[in-house]
Design a protein that fits this description.
By secondary structure, this protein is mainly α. The chain has 14 helices and two strands; from the N terminus they run ββαααααααααααααα. Helices cover 69% and strands 3% of the residues.
């Protein structure tokens, strides 16, 4: 039966007229291949996305694997053959380079200096920005909007503009060349973006929740610590990761504001490059050592980072 079918119904009673009902085939049921085609296209699109992500991951991981293998090979092996030969000859790999690197007092001190700069800077930026973001979002005080506009305007100020004036200021107060001076500089230039980010995130919290907490007798500090901070944990974690990575990998500020006793790992590796040229036995393990800590921090807080990035994208 093609086209349409005709069904005859004979009603009982006096009105025994013939009633014709036309049943036309559903266009969806007549095209089962269209469902398979759309399903296949979705599958292909997902496979293409997954393949692209795998390709990007391989491109990103390959230099990291090369750096790791090079850092575990001797200088003679690195000079004679490529790092990929260690995949077929694992006897080339050893931890001698890392042992020699950690025995170097300059590199070990630089690693400790990097921790002493990165951790306090991250804690100060996140703590001050969280307090300021809550104040700008939910507290009423004179000049609030104007001050916030000034903070937003500071986002466009390049870091290079403040290098010379801040260096003169730190020299006058005795902070130039110290770890405290490097930390203060990073805190000052990290706060505008941090305040802007957390203020916008805290402003999305339903006001009914804060009003209910105030009606229950909660103080502003109790509301901030018990309600706002737990709700803002994804954004705070994302900010902490970004700030830590920025400070850990920084070399410009540390190169100008730190002396030989307070220089971080990036400056120490740069000075090693100037002294020993292409000494891969020193540079490769040092570079991987400076890279592995941010990787550990990122993957440890990956779940919070994804939540912070996706926050606000779904209503």
């Amino acid at each position: 039966m093609s086209g349409h079918s005709t069904i005859e119904r004979r009603p009982t009673g006096r009105a025994s007229r013939r009633r014709t009902v036309t049943v036309r085939p559903s266009p969806v049921s007549s095209a089962p291949g269209s469902r398979r085609g759309s399903r296949l296209s979705r599958l292909l699109s997902n496979s293409a996305v997954q393949g692209a992500l795998i390709l990007v991951a391989l491109v990103w991981i390959t230099p990291l694997a090369g750096l790791l293998l090079s850092s575990m090979r001797s200088e003679r092996d690195n000079a004679s053959e490529g790092w990929w030969t260690a995949l077929t000859d694992p006897s080339q790999l050893s931890l001698d380079n890392y042992g020699a690197l950690l025995k170097d007092s300059g590199i070990a001190a630089a690693f400790v200096n990097t921790v002493l700069i990165s951790v306090p800077t991250t804690v100060l930026v996140v703590g001050i920005a969280a307090l300021a973001g809550y104040a700008f979002a939910w507290l009423e005080f004179p000049g609030r909007d104007g001050i916030f506009l000034v903070v937003v305007g500071l986002l466009v100020v390049p870091v290079q503009i403040g290098l010379l004036p801040v260096a003169k200021l730190f020299g006058a107060v005795g902070l130039f060349g110290s770890i405290a001076g490097v930390v203060l500089f990073h805190v000052a230039y990290g706060l505008p973006f941090a305040i802007f980010l957390l203020r916008n995130y805290f402003a999305e919290i339903p006001c009914e929740m804060l009003e209910a907490a105030r009606m229950d007798g909660g103080s502003e500090w109790r509301i901030f610590s018990r309600l706002v901070l737990p709700l803002g944990r994804p954004a705070i974690a994302s900010l902490a990761i970004f700030q830590f990575l920025w400070v850990w990998n920084d070399m410009l500020v540390a190169l100008l504001f730190a002396d030989s006793g307070s220089q971080p790992l990036t400056v120490a590796l740069q000075s090693q490059m100037r002294q020993f040229g292409s000494n891969i036995g020193v540079l490769a393990p040092g570079a991987f050592l400076s890279l592995v800590v941010p990787l550990i921090v990122f993957f440890a807080f990956q779940r919070h980072f994804v939540q912070g990035v996706m926050a606000g994208s779904v209503k």
